[in-house]
Specification:
The chain is of the alpha+beta class and about 180 residues long. It is built from 3 helices and 10 strands, in the order E-E-E-E-E-H-E-E-H-E-E-H-E.
């Protein structure tokens, strides 16, 4: 039974090495052989049914991480889930997500990510520029396999819809590729 009827369609990719063995956003160690996934806004521990719309294959995954931070993608599944979905070779597939269980996906605090930098001074420069026009501009550090990234995020909004509207405003006013992200405590 769907939890609150939440569903979403878009594209999924998968991730494995070099993320395998590194800390996921929820604090646990990512194991690419478990059925897990990264989503930008669904609460951690949510269980999601993922259907590959190309071939009808299904996998159930637990949300443990944040991402993908690539335009036109809504989910990053683990290698194990990618095998179940028969999308390893293809790399990216159209999918439908259905929330099976988890807390309220539309409640919480959300922000908009507008940049990610390897050099902290670049992130600070963008943060300072944006702080002149917008409230609550902050930097979130992310230790990736490619080095420490400094993600610039703007706003603290009460719903994903409000955050999506704000992201569109930032795209229009600033030209950003903007991602709505849940603020995890």
């Amino acid at each position: 039974m769907l939890s609150g009827g939440y569903s979403e369609e878009g594209f999924s990719s998968w991730y494995g090495v070099p993320f395998h063995g590194r800390r996921a956003a929820n604090g646990e160690i990512y194991d690419m052989h478990k059925l897990t996934a990264a989503h930008r806004t669904l609460p951690f521990e949510s269980i999601v049914r993922v259907t590959n719309l190309t071939n009808g294959r299904i996998s159930e995954v637990r949300i443990t991480d944040r991402g993908p931070f690539v335009e036109n993608r809504i989910l990053d599944v683990s290698f194990a889930a990618a095998k179940e979905l028969d999308m390893v070779t293809m790399g990216v597939a159209p999918v439908r997500l259905e929330l099976l269980c988890g807390s309220r996906p539309l409640e919480g605090s959300f922000t908009v990510q507008v940049g990610a930098f390897l050099a902290r001074e670049n992130a600070e420069g963008l943060r300072e520029r944006l702080a002149e026009r917008y409230s609550s501009v902050f930097i979130h550090e992310y230790d990736s396999p490619n080095g420490l990234f400094y993600r610039v995020r703007v706003g603290r909004l009460a719903s994903p819809e409000a955050a999506r509207q704000f992201a569109e405003r930032l795209r229009g006013e600033e030209g950003f590729v903007a991602f709505v992200v849940r603020l995890d405590e």
